[in-house]
Amino acid sequence: MTTDLHGPLSAYAARLHATIGDRHHVASPLGAWLLLAVCATAADSDPAAEDLADALGTDLASAAEAARTLLDAPHPLVASATALWHRPGQGSRGSTEWRAALPTTTDVGVLPDQAGLDAWAREHTHGLIDTFPLKVSSDVVFALASALATQISWATPFDLTDAHALGAGSAWARGLRRALRSPSHGHRCAIVSDTRAGDVIVHAAPAQTDNGPGLVVLSVAAAPQVPPAEVLAVAYNLSAGAADGAQPAGSRSLFDLPLGETPLWTLSEERVRTRARDGREERHTATLPCWSARSEHDLTAAALGFPAATAALAKALSQPVLGFEARQAAMARYGRYGFEAAAVTGMFGLVSLPPEGVARTAELRFGHPYAVVAVATDTRADGATGPWHGVPVFSAWVAEPEDVPEDDASER
Question: What InterPro entries does this protein's entry cite (predicted)?
Fold first, then answer.
């Protein structure tokens, strides 16, 4: 399942990061993808279903099954949650078959108020996300949400070094005092050749675990002129192997590279005692800055799939949806001793509703004699009215009612 999901997630990440652009940010393509995949059970063979499958990068049944598998068997280091909420009295409409296919962990219930939505975001992100990314209003008829969060300690913490180790050409080196330096063991580093991005540098830091499921945070840098989208694509490509602890495909031997400085590394050589079989030992270290980010992302672009997901869910719920909102709030913090990150993704289905108030209903009964007037209307295409407009054509006084004819008693 992991291999099957990696391709669709990589493709979706490319779409999402492309809409965000080159600014400093953090996002969770998985959080958005899971929300779409939960909607996959509600879609059928209409254009919305085709658009949804295109965004998911796989067929709807496979996407729904992948979401169920992930959410119903949560990772011990990644808290995950999904929820579907609806207006009171409006949650029982439409087919119930798609509901049965939802992940069993998906909360289904009445739409909370804003305080309730914010509390849900805090609860399912260990307090890392304070507020839900969307503001609820009377126009919201249903909402779908996902949350992901992790807080890990490194299996081996970083050492510290002077920020000048980031390189003479780095503006960061002049603006920072200290940076992180990979320890002598426990982290993995490599120089990898990629057909699109050229040579890239790779650092992988694993989480501290009890020899069970874990988490590896992969950092990938390319030459400064390489577009961010290509570097992100390389990182996603390498992430599959990083989960297995394997040497990255395309790793270069240090003895195939020239000594000296590049924008990405400094390569030196010295005489040492070594047990390497050929007498040539390769060592890697890495210097990275600490970093943190808080971001919010608009997910309404058609390529991200939320218009299609809204249409599918509206049809399944038999709700008259006229619009939608979709946003993600995300944060991350990368430091010497660990990493934490969280994301909450929300989608609202909207209708134009009046403000809440009090309604009275009058059933009008024509049970005694009454008058009838047939009035002509005569409105032209340009909005003007013609001579017949408002002219009473027929009038009557109804005093002898009749029963409905048999021919009119059945549907036509």
Answer: Serpin_sf (IPR036186), Serpin_sf_1 (IPR042178)
